[in-house]
Amino acid sequence: MNHYFSWFGLPGSFVLTILLSLLALVLALLSPSPARWFCFAAMAASSIGDIFLMRFHGLERIFPNYFVIGAAFFMLAQLLYFNTYRLLAKKHSYPFMNTGVIIIAVIAVICLVYFTVICAQRAHFDWRRYFLAMIYLCMISLGSSMIFSYSFSHMHVNPFSLIAAIGALSFLISDLIIGLGLLAGITRFDHLIWWFYPIGQVLIILFAF
Q: pTM of the full predicted structure?
């Protein structure tokens, strides 16, 4: 998808992530609420993370630890998304624990076991990167669990709220594809990252109501 956004001589992934942040900002301005502003902050943090991870304009020369910095911003984004949907759940007095949370917990455990087994089988593996990835897995699972929790609770009021859960799952899939490349050396799915990631972000942002 990012190839369609290579405008003004800029990388398509850069243009696309900026547009996503602008979308979140416009929604916050048109329908201001604490949840909308947290949503914008989450997307802005994601965009900063994107810029570091894509090594925009040689950022890796200025910040040798660009990967860690980018990952840190994405962890912050997950915390902000968690708070976005926590506020929405609190508004309706929804409990946290429900079927959606269990689904995310099962997915997280499966991913943890899979990547641990794969990494243990590889010689000369960078375990520091593995631990960073597992910390991030915990963070995105936390953010996704809150989105799923709210979506599954609110679907009785508005069935469209489940679309936010689909967005969280799409976001999670994009990160799992990145994990496959970094931890398992499987890169044949990399071209799908910039399909699942922006679609996931758009759905999370649009249906934060």
A: 0.94
